[in-house]
Amino acid sequence: MKIKEFLGPVLATFVLILLGDGVVAAVVLAARGGPGWYDWNTIAFGWAFAVIFSGVLVGADNNPAITIANAVRGAMPWKKLVPTVLGSFIGGFLGAAAVYLVYQEGLVSAGMPNIWTSGAGSLYNAAGNGSGSYSIVNASVAEFFGTMILMWAVLAVGDKKNSNFAKAGTFVVGGVILAIGLSLGGPSGYSLNPARDLAPRIFGAIAGTKGLFDGWYWLIPPVLVPIVSCIVSTALYDALLNSEKGVEADKKSIAA
What we know:
single chain; mainly alpha; 9 helices
């Protein structure tokens, strides 16, 4: 893999987390206008535009779950998997560090609340990971279906039958992220992306946010479930919705 191919996921995930966790920080800290000016809709729209601008500015992989599913599908070489996934996690960590620099004084004065991760039930509690009214199982179900819709959107954008939407693919996926956040994001905070959650979680723990790795919530709904969901969703899409002949076309293009 060329160095530019490695830096693509780094920069894409950096932009994603800088803008995505940035909007969470704005909501949690309510820096302007008071709490009434910020709500869940703010987060949902902020993350949607984070996805859009990450795609427009960089246009590289920033979701290890999708990357792994593409490798399993045969749509990308296995040799690129580790550098791409590693780049996504590095970019997520650096993006979280940038959010810390932007909101440092507010975070410190507020006692370092969790603005880094998704979480069951609520993003506004002290730990933000599993202390809401939803169990790990329920949050995992929400993550599975939310990630399924995301994966189907990504696959549909690249499907030959939707070629007219190819140039607008980033905006379509951003709109789907908005819909997922508004409709399915409540039980788990809709991670949908291991690098979106785990990389900032690691930085947050280093920066002084408490409780981020208590229990097993941190590993299952936001990290493992999106990977499983992307693999399963890809198989279902190819079996039921793909207008082309499964993944054979993708394999031939790689071989060429």
